[in-house]
Every structure is written in C-alpha cells, then in structure tokens.
Design brief:
This protein is α+β, with helices and mostly antiparallel strands and 225 residues long. A hairpin with a 2-residue loop joins strand 3 and strand 4. It is built from six helices and four strands; from the N terminus they run αααβαβαββα. A four-stranded mixed beta sheet has the order 2-1-3-4, sandwiched between helices. The protein has two domains: 129 residues, Up-down Bundle (Methane Monooxygenase Hydroxylase, Chain G, domain 1), CATH 1.20.58; 96 residues, Glutaredoxin, CATH 3.40.30.10. Helix 1 runs parallel beside helix 3 and helix 2 packs antiparallel against helix 3.
C-alpha cells in the first residue's frame, strides 16, 4: 500500500512538472508571437513612411490630391501608433521571458513616433496641412509614478486629443530614453523641467510643469509668439 501511495505521489509530481513546462513553453510562444507581430507592424509603418517622404520630396505643394493622400496616410499610421502603446505595455506586464525585448520595443516605438512627428512638420511646410503637433517630454513611457505633474499634464493632453482628434498629433518623448536625437531635441527646445510640452516645434510655445488643457489650447493654431 505504501508503495502504491509513493508511486501516486511521484506520478502527480511528474504530471505537475509536465503541465508547468508546457505552460512555460506556451507562454514563451505567445511572447514570441506578440513581439514579432508588434515589431513587424512598426517596421511596415516605417517602410510606408519612407515612401511618403520620397513622394513629399517629389511633389509640389500645389499637388492637392497627393497632399491629401499623404495627410490621410499619416493620420492612419499615427492612429496605429497611439493605440499600439497599450499593447506594448500590456504585453510587457504579462511577459515572462521577453521583458527586456519589450523594453527595447518601447525604444523602437519612441523613435518611430519621432519619425512621424518629423514627417508631419515637413507636411505642414509643403502642403496645406494645419494639424498641430505636440512633443510631450515626460520621464518615461506609460505611468510615471515618480512624476505627479507628468500624470496631470498627460491627462490634459488626452482631453485635447479627444476634442480635436486628427487635428492634434501628440508624440511622447521619454527623457529616460538615452538617445542622441532625444537629447538634441531637449537642447534645442531648452527642456530643463519635466514635464514639458512643445507645440508645433516652436520653442516659444514651450509649456512646463503641470499644464492645463486650457493653457495648451491657447497655443494651438496661434501665431508664433
């Protein structure tokens, strides 16, 4: 009888280990699929952006139809960009094996956003495109627990995004992300306080600290100060 119980315990332990191992393999498989899917999506958007930049360099500003096509494409890709952040954060939180990879994905996400921002500014110079762009300098992507004013300003920007939709393009720039281009933007716009909002790549429209939606709104579509 004791031998039977012993074998039962061994059998139960083996089954538990097998189930655990299968769970780990499945979790790793899901992580790989999510990571590959997100990376492919961002790469596809960047390839499309390269095509738009070539088109923008070639066309004339009076080519109204081409301008409209580029504006529509930009709005679509920025919409995907905005919604993709939630996926990256959710996948990172639930990932067991690839947390470092999803952290790297955040960096790719930031650089892609800056590429879209640059294209939007070029589009305003070459076409009749009057959307506002906002660079939102904060501590990090997602919830900034160490920066209460970042959370407030982020909420105010979300209110304006809901109000203006495609006419307001917001790009998050985390200062904790060590990158030469990010550092150059901080220097150019004299970003010395977090959070800071830069409207339409204009240093005179620099708002720092806890900024209300009304204060930001006053600078949208306004003439250079």
């Amino acid at each position: 009888m004791r031998d039977v119980k012993k074998y039962r315990y061994i059998f139960a332990a083996v089954i538990t280990i097998v189930i655990f191992a299968l769970g780990m393999l499945f979790s790793n498989f899901v992580d790989d699929q999510r990571y590959s899917s997100l990376r492919n999506e961002i790469q596809e958007d960047n390839v499309e952006l390269e095509s738009w930049q070539l088109q923008l360099s070639y066309l004339r500003s009076e080519d109204v139809e081409s301008c409209r096509a580029l504006q529509s494409g930009l709005q679509d890709v920025v919409s995907n960009y905005n919604s993709r952040l939630d996926d990256i954060q959710n996948y990172e939180e639930n990932s067991f094996f690839r947390k470092d990879d999803f952290e790297s994905m955040k960096n790719l996400y930031v650089l892609s956003g800056l590429r879209y921002w640059m294209f939007a500014e070029e589009l305003k110079d070459n076409c009749e495109y009057d959307a506002n762009t906002v660079l939102y300098f904060t501590t990090q992507i997602g919830e900034a627990k160490d920066c209460e004013s970042c959370g407030y300003t982020g909420e105010q920007l979300s209110i304006l995004k809901q109000k203006y939709g495609e006419q307001l393009l917001i790009f998050t720039v985390p200062t904790q992300f060590e990158d030469g281009f990010v550092e150059m933007l901080e220097t150019r716009h004299n970003v010395t306080e977090i959070p800071t909002v830069i409207i339409n790549d204009n240093s005179t429209k620099r708002l720092s600290g806890s900024v209300s939606s009304q204060e930001i709104e006053r600078h949208l579509w306004s003439e250079d100060q």
